[in-house]
Predict the 3D structure of the following.
Amino acid sequence: MHKKSLIRIIAILMTVSISIASFTAGGISAYSEISTNSYKSAEQDKQEAENALQNQKDELQKNLEDAEKKLAELAVQSKNTEEYVNTLDEKIGYLNEQLTLLDNDVVKYQEEIDALQKNIDLNQADADALQIAVDDAQLVLDELNAKFKHKYDAYCIRVRAIYISGSFNLLSALLTCRDLSSFLTRYEMIKSVSKSDAELLAEIEEQTKVILQQEDELNAKKAELDIVLAKLNSEKSQLQSKQNDLTKIQEVQATKKAMLATDRAESDRLLAELTAKNGMYTEFKNEDKELIDALEKEIDDLLSGIKNPNDVTLATTSNRHDVTGPAYSYSDVYNNSDAVLNMTYPVPGNYTVSCGFGKYSNGNPHNGIDFPCSKGSKVVAAQSGVVIKTQRLDYSYGYYVMIYHGTDARGRSVVTLYAHNSSILVSVGETVSKGQQIAKSGSTGNSTGPHCHFEIRLDNNAVNPKNYLSK
């Protein structure tokens, strides 16, 4: 091949190599940029979430302080006012929200503590294993050094003897022989000693290499152990810091729970006094959440099992006892008709509302409306239907009745609920007509005085009853 052709080929290969290198570098750079941007985006999202959470906490604290300031101002006049009770309930609502956020913080810190403790346990195990390896390597090195010292001391003695005797002694020892036999014998002895010296030196050199290699391995293990110990100490420091933070949060939590309990008790006391004074009886606004959640689940399970009238097999009074759950015939309830939504007031002649539909000032839901009335007043079915539940509780709804009325024009199931009765006059599975008495009013369960708590649920979603009631 000509020299110029060879040079040309080399040049082409170098160009291609440079292009490939540039492309590869560009690809790596682009990938690195994408990865960096993704990391930054995740970090930004995390930071934004933390900022939003902190803003929420700051706002809650400000609202709480404003409520406390307003309570102090109102207390100068009187605590037995609706405005004071409502403001106190607002404060309770803020405390509830703060406690929810604190609960989340406790869970978060506990998860981080558990993760750190897990890492600490793993790193401690690694450190223990490395320490054993370091100790074993040190023992091996110590044994090697002991053997080396023995050989080295012997070699030093030999070198010292050679140095003292001088190099001319070899020639003198040979020349002073009396005959050839002595010369040869002495020569063989000198050669044997020299060979022994050479072997001793070789052993020392070999042992030196082994010792140096063992020292390198030992130093590497020590360096690895130092890294693990440094990480372990750092994680222990983080763990202690987070445990301290968790303790502080739990202390704040305990303080706020005590404050909440005190405020709830005062709210209930003042509300009882206020409703007794004006006759506008309703429910206490602070109840055990676990009990309420359990009751709601019981109602949800019941309503989720109700059949659409189209799916009901006709049943007669004589065979209803064979049917599991509330049974009814097609004609007992409405079927896809908005006529079902034309309801009458549950306590005839009592139209005053002591507490409307929506939320209390503390944020808790009020899923119906309350009609204060004298104890023993007639409580009637707001619309015709079938009784699907009667229950007698000493909390929440107290003695209550639920009636299924069928479906509206949109196919939504329609159910009404009547609570806090002193007695119940109907049974599950019984068909009732609009305006028929089903109970006597009272103040059972969570109640400040005699009243009827009335609810309408469409597909188990509570709606404002006032939109469906007429005299």
User: Anything to note?
Assistant: Helices lie at 3-77, 82-165, 169-175, 180-278, 289-304. The chain has five helices and 13 strands. Residues 135 and 218 are 9 Å apart (CA to CA). Residues 180-278 form the longest helix (99 residues).
